[in-house]
Structure of Antibiotic biosynthesis monooxygenase:
Amino acid sequence: MSVVKINVLTVPADMREELERRFAKRAGMVDSADGFEWFELLRPVDGTERYLVYTRWRSEEDFQNWQQSQAFQRGHAQAAQDAQGQGHGHGQGPAQGHGHGQGPAATGSEVWSFEVAESAGPAS
Ligand code: HEM
């Protein structure tokens, strides 16, 4: 039974373009992770600030292994660098971080976990 892991990213309106640009040039390393089944970046169209990073995995263990892997680290190189840059006094908060490089594209993140109880695809 597959598991779905959704990273909920809170993205201020003025950072949406930057976030989508980063995902558009993402490392793509997750694509060859063991047990990886699907990835989608879901853009909010209802006026909220929450993007959903949807991933589906063969098992919980496969997801955990990826999250501990080099591929996860490399896939998050830019995000990690931004988070670090923010801590170095270059900026007292997200706003000021914008002057020195773009700063983190998301101001918050949380992970939602699901098991696929039922699924269906288009009738062939
Ligand atoms: C602090 C938490 C996190 C933040 C701020 C974050 C942000 C980002 C950003 C900005 C990127 C684009 C690449 C980059 O700029 O580095 C990225 C890539 C990605 N993120 Fe996250 N992320 C986080 C945790 C997670 C988690 C927990 C998941 C899984 C549910 C996830 C799934 C992905 C995937 C699949 C990619 C593409 C990686 C690749 O292409 O190999 N992220 N993330």
Remarks:
- The radius of gyration is 16 Å.
- The chain has one domain: 3-115.
- The chain has a mean pLDDT of 86.
- The helical segments are 16-24, 60-67, 70-75, 77-87, 94-97.
